[in-house]
Amino acid sequence: VIITDCFPQTFGREVVVSLSWKDFLYISIPCGLVTCLDIGLSNLALVRITLTFYTMVKASTPIFVLICAFLFGLEKVSWRLILVVIIISVGLFL
User: Fold this and answer.
1) pLDDT in tens, 15-26
2) Is the model's pLDDT at 27 over the cut of 90?
3) Half-sphere exposure of 57 (CA within 13 A, CB side)
4) HEC letters along the chain
5) Phi, psi (5° rounding) for residue 55?
6) d(CA 47, CA 32)
7) How confident is the model at residue 80 (pLDDT cuts 50, 70, 90)?
């Protein structure tokens, strides 16, 4: 935050002066719904399955995030990125 405040042209982006209610709701409602589903389904999972299995499933989140990033074109497929995510996931599974 300090760097973007000191050097906004280099590290920052446009400052949003005003945001209409339509744009605000268009941005915030999907984020809120996804967060709500994540919390609700996580709580439901804790009731239905063991804590050990829940922890292992949550540890696989980086794998699913990477797959979605590849599918939606947010990241280019590279062996280096795949290797990093595999190393992180293996470390979490241990």
Assistant:
1) 667 878 888 888
2) no
3) 10
4) CHHHHHCHHHHCCCCCCCCCHHHHHHHHHHHHHHHHHHHHHHHHHHHHCCHHHHHHHHHCHHHHHHHHHHHCCCCCCCHHHHHHHHHHHHHHHC
5) -65, -40
6) 23
7) very high
Q: What is the mean pLDDT of the chain?
A: 84
Residue 29, phi then psi, degrees to nearest 5: -65, -45
The pLDDT, as a whole number, for residue 16 is 64
Q: Tokens for 5, please give them.
A: 């405040």
Per the listing, tokens 């292992």 go with 56
Model pTM above 0.85: no
Residues 6+ apart with CB under 8 A from 42: 58
